[in-house]
Amino acid sequence: MQIIYLPLQGYWFSASAFSDLQNCSHFSFQSGVSVATFLIFNNDVMNIYVGNLGQQTSETQLRDLFTAYGEVDSVKIITDHVTGRPRGFAFVEMADKANAENAIQELNNTKLDTQFITVNEARPKATQSGGYGSSYRSSGNRRY
């Protein structure tokens, strides 16, 4: 765990100034006119991707499954933003990297409910360039 103290005296700190904000939490306190912020990095936290989940799988089931291997910080089943239905995958955050690696090794390709699940270390989300219609715009200089 790493703690960084930031004395804030009329200065703004950019989030991009820190390389590992994914595993960071912060808190601030004010004493009179003085404000201080602490960033707390937990470098041992591992985010785990769990794929091929059945529609009936719950966050409680996943938490219970992974708790057998160590402390679970969070579980999030990803849902479709329009329908609200599960998209078939989730992310589990475990507090200890060694326990998380053990859980990945033991749980990958095992059966949960009626599905064989895929379990591996989550990769950072790829940045997408462009936007709506970007493939059309990049297809050449069309005038129509």
Output the keywords.
144 residues; Alpha-Beta Plaits; 2 domains; 4-stranded antiparallel sheet; 3 helices; 38% strand; disordered N terminus
Shape: globular
In N-to-C order, the SSE pattern is: EEEEHEEHEEEH
- Termini separation: 57 Å
Number of domains: 2
Radius of gyration (CA) equals: 21 Å
Number of H/I helices: 3
- Superfamily at the CATH H level of the largest domain? RRM (RNA recognition motif) domain
CATH-scheme architecture of the largest domain: 2-Layer Sandwich
Biggest sheet details: 4 strands, antiparallel
CATH class of the largest domain: Alpha Beta
What share of the residues lie within helices?
10-25%
Multimerization status: single chain
Mean pLDDT: 76
Unreliable parts: 1-5, 9-22, 26-35
Structural class: alpha+beta
Provide the spatial order of strands within the biggest beta sheet: 5-6-4-9
What does it look like?
With 144 residues, the protein is an alpha+beta fold. The strands form three sheets. Strands 5-6-4-9 form a four-stranded antiparallel β-sheet, covered by helices on one side. Helix content is 17%, strand content 38%. It starts with a strand and ends in a 7-residue tail after the last helix. It has helices spanning 59-67, 97-107, 134-137; strands at residues 2-8, 24-31, 34-41, 46-51, 72-79, 86-94, 111-112, 115-116, 118-121. The protein has two domains: 2-41; 46-121, Alpha-Beta Plaits (2-Layer Sandwich), CATH 3.30.70.330. Residues 1-5, 9-22 and 26-35 have low confidence and may be disordered.
